[in-house]
Each structure stands twice: as C-alpha cells, then as structure tokens.
Amino acid sequence: MIDHRGDSPATVRPGTTPRSVVALIDAASGVERELVGKWLAEGGISAEFGTDAPVTQLDLDAGAVAARLVGRRDDPLVVPIRVLWLPQERDGVRRVTFGDLALLTNPRKPNRLAQRKLVSKSPDRHVVLTGAPARLSELRVNNPEASALYDKGTAEPFARAIVRAAVVALERAERTIIGDRYKVPKLVAEEILDSPDFLRRLEVIADQIGASPHEVYRRAEKALNELVAAQSRLVSDLFTQAMRPVHASTWNVDFDESGLTGLRDLNRRFPLVFLPSHRSYVDAFVLGDVLARNDFPPNHVIGGANLSFWPMGPIARRTGTVFIRRSFGDDEVYKAVVEEYFAYLLAKRFNLEWYFEGGRTRTGKLRPPRYGLLNYLAAAVRSNRIDDVMLVPVSITYERLNELGAIATEQEGGKKKPEGLTWLARYIRSQQHSAGHVYVRFGEPLSARDRLAAHGDPLTAPPLTIPLHHTEPIPAPRTEAGVVDSEPPEIAELERKAVQRLAFEVAVGINAVTPITVSALVTLALLGVDGRALTLGEVRTVLNPVLGYIDKRELPGGELDALRDAQGLAVVLEQLSLAKVVTVYRGGVEPVYSIEPGAHLEAAFYRNSAVHWFVNRAILELSILAGVDNGDADALKTGWDEAFRLRDLLKFEFFFPDRGEFADQMVAEMLLVDPDWYSHTRSDTLSSDILAKLTASGFTMAHRVLRSFIDAQLVVAERLAARDAGDEIDRKEFITECVAVGKQMMLQQRLHSPESVSTELFTSALKLADNYGLLETVSDDEPEERRAELVGRRNEFAERLRTIGARIAQAATLDPSNREAR
Question: How large is the C-alpha radius of gyration of the chain?
Fold first, then answer.
C-alpha cells in the first residue's frame, strides 16, 4: 500500500511497531462486515503483522478517510481489508462458468443470501484478505502534492489517494490467490483526473484552443470514460468460456511454451507490449487464451472503434479491450487523454496488445506498420514515466482460414461489409469447420528504451533516476494524422525515424518466428505451374527440393513432415480441397490437383504467410540471370546492382535489412546454390556454370514468389505512363482503374495469375511510384522539358518492370516442373 504507483508492496519495518492500527474495511454487505469483525476479534492483525496495537475500524470510503484518518497525528499503521469470495474449484481451477449463473449471482460477488449459505456450507469459498500496510506518514511522503493540499485545508485529494492505494494493495493481494490472469485496474479515470500534471496539461490545451478549463476537463472526462477498459473478472471468465469454442473447435492451438517462460520472468520487471501479426478476427481470442492458460495478466487490447458495436463492444470493454477512434483529427484533448492513458497503463505495468499493421492483412504477409500507437509508447519512455517497456513480436499463423472469401472479394474491389450483430453471427457460423493448426510464436523481446536510443532518438538515454512524475507536459506524439512539434525539427525527425526503425525491428522479429505451414508450401507449388493440374507425384517432385532447402536453412516449420510422404501430402491436398482452395479431378487415371478457379487470391494468402523466407532466393535467381544477360567481365557487378535494385523495388512489400546485412544474406544464398562460389574468378562467377548449378538445385522461386508483386507494379506503371503528366491523381479512383485494367490484362494473358489483381498490391505499388516521384504533375506554365522528363521516367519505370517480368518468365523455364510440362 505504501506505493500505489509501483508493484512492490510495503511491509512493516522491523523495530517500528505501531502504536495504533486503522483497518480500512472494504465491505459490501453485513455478512462481509461480520466476517471481518470476527477475524479482527480473533487477533487477525496480531497474527498477520505482529502487533497488539489497538485497531480502529473505518470504511474504505474517501469521505470517511478524510474525516477520520488524514488528520491523525499518531501515525497509525493503515491496513486495507476485504473478504475475497472464490468460485467452486473444478479440476484444480477456480473459474466462473455459465452453470454458476443458474444461482442468479456472481460467485466472485455473491448476494447476501448466497454469502450466508457459503459461510455455513462452503467455508473454503471465502478468505479474509489484507493488503500490504503502510504508515500514514509513508502515505504522506508518497503523495506529496495531495498531502500539501491537505496542509492547506483540502483533505479530499489525499483521502482519494489513500483509497486508491488501498484498493490497489488489495488487488495485488487477491492476485496471489486467484492468479495473475485476473490482474485488472481500478479507479483509473479517477486517478488520471486527479493527476496535477495532467490537469496542468489540460490547462495548457484550454489556453491553446481558446476554451474554458472546465469545458476541457469535461471533454477529457468524457474521453476517458469512453476509453478506459472497465475490466470484470466475471465477464472475463464467461467471455473466455464462450469464445474459446470459436477457435478451439476450429484449430489445434500450437504455442511456444519455452518462450512464455522467459516472458513471464521478464514481466515481473517490465510491462509487456504484445505486437502480433494480424490475419484473422480471432487473433486476439487465440493469443488471449494462450496467455490466460499460462497465468499471464489480461492484456489491454487496443482496437478500432468500428468493433465496439453492441453487444460485443460493452462485453469486450469488460475483458480489457480499449476502443480508440480511427481518426483524432485536431482533437488535442482526445490526443492528450490517449497519451495519458497509455502512460498510466505502462507505469502500472499493465500489459498491452495491439495489431500494429493497422488491420488484417489482405495478402497473407505482413503489412507496412502504422506508427501512431508506437509514438505514444515512445512518448511515455522519453518522458521517463516508465523505466522501460518490452515489445514482444508475436506471429499468429493459420494452416487454413475460413474467412478468406470475404478478404479476396475486397482485394478484387468489393466493399468490406460493416461489422455488426448480423456480421458476428455469420462470422461465428463460418468458423465451425476444422482448419488444422494455428501456430503462436513469440519473438525476441525488444527493449523500447534501448532500441529507440540505438536508432538515434536523443531523448531515450537511460535516466540516472526515474522520477515518479514528470514535471512538464509530455510533448505531443507524432501521429499519422498530423505533427505537433514542441522540439526543433531535427530532433523531431530523429524521433520519427527511431520509431520507424523500432517498428521495422518488430516486423522482422515477427517474420523470424513465423513458421512455414503445409498450406503455404502446397499453394506455393500449385501457384507456380501456370494453372496446370499436377498429380500427387508431381506435387512431391516440386516440394522435395524446397523441403531440402528449408532443412539446410533450418527454417521454422509447422507439420512439414506430412509433406514428405504421399499419404500425408494427399491429406493436406484434400483439406485444401474442402476449403475450396484446391480442386481435384478424379475422372482420369489418377487424381490431379490445381488451384480452384476463382480462388487464386485465397491460395496466395496461404503462400504469402511464408513467402518472406524465399524472397532472397528469388532475388538471387534474377540477379544471376541479369549477370548472364550482361555476358561480360562485369557480370558480377551487374548481378549485385540488380540485387540492390530489386531490393529497392520491393521495399514496400518486404522488410529488408541494411545494405551490408542484405549483401551477407545474398552471399549465404549463393553458397547454398554453389558451395564453391568463392573459388570462382570474377569473370566466370555468374557464368553458365553458375546458371547450371542453379538449375541443378531442383527448383526456382522467382516466378512463385515475386511474379504477382511485379505484375501488380506493372499495371500501376502502365496506367501512370498512359496518363497526361498534368493530370492530378486521385488515389482511390486510380486503384479502381488498376483493378479494372488488371482484369483486362488477365484476359489478354499479359498477367500470369489473378492474384496480381489486388487492391492491396496496387496500393503498395502506388506508394513505390510516389517514392520515385512518379505521381508528380506538371502544370501548363512549366517548361516542356519538365513534362518530357516526367513522362520519360514513368515510361522507364514501366519498361524496367517489363524486363524483370521477362526474367521471371526465364527463371520459370529453369524450374523442373515447368520443363517437364513442355
């Protein structure tokens, strides 16, 4: 109780026996008061704290505390006390079930009649609980500003601080009995609104926007009530019980127990922020269930306000979901409240969770990160509100997903259906089909303070001391909606880049532990044969060298042994057939398998969950072909130049390391193709001998991995080249145009697969074109040379992609599966 800001409880120090004790009793019924009174009369305080000092009983109420405690001069020991009610034990676990509700009372908060019955019939169902005690003088020292207000004649702030400290102390004591998975915050809005620092910040905002302090305070209070997750242990138990069948009956959850052990140890010292990949609406349920089963406290899950519809919204808020508006605009009050709430949760060591891609991936691979929430976290670290926070990359990977049809429709230009009760019922119904494994893997935790400092953030060096409160308002974080600078531009730019690099490291951490699933490999094989159907033996022929490559690199995998024998592979293909991703023709001599017509985007989703493992191999193949095409003594330089150009072309699709590390990775890929590569001379390193060794490896990846991305870029490039240089580009209309023209190019067989016609891929390609300055416009009064220069660059971009497309086609001819078909 001595320090309600931290997690270390106070104890009675030796040699400081108090002369009096004040018992702050948190009782909601006469039964509870009787139980506490009996416990006190039987010497509970003496037995627990070793003191026979007289005890004064006082309600845990700010009014009573203000009237009868804060003014005392005898420095009593303050002990919070309450009765803890426990659910019935089932299989060694005390958790509320829906069956308990048949008694029309909450087993954790039974009504008075139920309490009487439990006391007489089930005495093991209640415990008289004490929180860590503190001297009144220690509470004064720990709350200097509230204590100073008392000295000036205002007792209420100090009384509220004592009540909050007592509640937190009791919550900690409860968790020693019921487990950390029931760690929930109490009195959050009240404590934030009592913070002098936050109130000062609101006064500054009021002055800036020309509003009255009272109006700004009310707006902040409303925003806090909208944001704060009012967690309930009862609702958490029931919600977990209700939602577990949604994924438990669909997937076999496979998680990394050793990773969780290390995280649990780390969580004793730092708050954790879980940053998972986002492939499904059930991601949060799957991860939450894994953590709850391993006695982690519930995460505060940050979600978009679009998911706060009834009844899910009110229920989710009581299980820890924080719904944030999609756009803040220029609402400085709301920004301040979100930042303060973030800092509060982290300072109290509550774990957070959000999906930093900003939404579910539509392609199967990681999307580019959004930086808004990371900016708030960085602000809390910079201000020294927290010592440090550990970011945990989390990969959640599904062998099969039952919601891919809707995702594919959106990629083809269809509208996303709004979330609501009807949508929820339809979604739950769609999940009632077995879908194999879901793999939950935890990456290496990242120290936010260390990583921000390593990336050049000038304000995140480890502090000499960690003050309990900062003394100046926290600088407004840099958000995607806008920038509010309170620092020199060069410092703001360093901070921005540091957050971006941190997000990049999280993404790399997720990819590093994402396993290759059986569905990813089978779709990788079938998408790379230009629509042909393969026999079971032919599929094995494609997969065997790839499995050997995975073994050599020791890449993480799912149940890949199933693909090493004919029977296991046949089962995987049949499961994908049931999922309507693969079609099987059985009317001939033997079954043949191909991608289901119209299901190329769904198949690509599965493939792309693992595609990052093969990107460097694909780049190597195209670099070798570029060197061979060059045909002179500069073949090696040509190959390296091509590798770096491809890396730049794909920078909005994949997470590449810096040039030095990328070069090392490319050398490692070359050594897999040709272990004797270092013995070659410069003139023959990329000669036909190397090409022969590439062919002898038994597979090529460029056409399987990169073709859809390059084809999508080509559509964007050609539509830009066809535009007048003076036309302004409306991005939404342009993407719609690309979808329509992409479908035409598919019919003309200028694109190789429907998976290239994707709004997500077109959006990334448009970002790349913008990065190259190709979205600029030339006004009529500018020189004609300027217009010609822009047109030339757009045409050069399109021609460059055509050349790469031709090399990809050449790489495809080297693949044994395609050679045998010819």
Answer: 31
- Both tokens of 44, joined, read 């509970």
- CA quadruple 314, 316, 319, 324: dihedral, nearest 10: -100
- Peptide bond preceding 311: is omega within 30 degrees of 0, i.e. cis? yes
Between CA 605 and CA 364 the distance in angstroms is 4
> In 3D, which of 782, 762, 656, 748 has the Cα closest to residue 719?
762
Residue 641 and residue 689 in contact, taking contact as beta carbons nearer than 8 Å: no
Q: In this predicted model, what pLDDT tens digit does every residue of 652-677 receive, in sequence order?
A: 999 999 999 999 999 999 999 989 88
Distance CA 652, CA 718 (A): 19
What b/e string do you get for 348-385 counting C-beta neighbours within 10 Å, with b at 16 or more? bbbbbbbbbbbebbbbbbbbbbbbbbbbbbbbbbbbbb
CB atoms within 10 A of CB 390: 20
Tell me the two tokens of residue 538. Answer: 């032919």
Number of H helices, E strands in the chain: 34, 18
| Per-residue pLDDT reduced to its tens digit, 567-614 | 999 999 999 998 899 999 999 999 999 999 989 999 999 999 999 999
Q: Output the six-digit token pair for 753.
A: 């697969």
| CA distances for 489 relative to 35, 370, 492, angstroms | 62, 21, 5
Three-class secondary structure of residue 22 per DSSP: strand
In sequence order, what are the beta bridge partners of 254? 439
Which residues fall within 8 angstroms of residue 378, CB to CB, at 6 or more apart?
448, 452, 457, 460, 477, 495, 498, 499, 502
CB atoms within 10 A of CB 60: 19
The residue among 680, 689, 642 whose CA lies nearest residue 663 is 642
CB-CB neighbours of 195 under 10 Å: 15
- Rounded Cα gap, residues 54 and 46, in angstroms: 10
**All residues at 6 or more sequence positions from 286 whose CB lies less than 8 Å from its CB, including other chains:** 247, 251, 253, 396, 438, 440
What DSSP line would sit under 141-155, residue for residue? HHSHHHHHHHHTT--
User: H-type helices in 431-488, by residue range?
Assistant: 448-454
Contacts of 613 (CB under 8 A, 6+ apart): 516, 550, 553, 555
The single-letter code of the amino acid at 246 is: V
The whole-angstrom separation of Cα 522 and Cα 526 is 6
Does residue 485 register a pLDDT over 80?
no
* Residues with Cβ within 8 Å of residue 307, at least 6 apart in sequence: 313, 316, 321, 323, 419
Read off the tokens for 639.
Answer: 């190959």
Assign residue 531 a region: left if phi > 0, alpha if psi is -120 to 50, beta otherwise? left
Parallel/antiparallel/unpaired status of strands 592-595 and 300-304: unpaired
Determine contact, residues 722/670, Cβ cutoff 8 Å. Answer: no
* Residue from 505, 482, 485, 506 nearest 495 by CA: 485
**Tokens (6 digits) for 90:** 């089932």
**Contact criterion met (CB below 8 Å) for 411 and 383:** no
Alpha-carbon gap, residue 56 to 643, rounded angstroms: 78
Coil, helix or strand at residue 594: strand
CA-based nearest residue to 378, from 500, 466, 482, 467: 500
Provide the mean pLDDT of the chain: 84
Query: Could you report the per-residue pLDDT of 413-423, keeping only the tens digit for each?
Result: 666 665 555 65
710: how many CB neighbours lie within 10 A of its CB?
Answer: 27
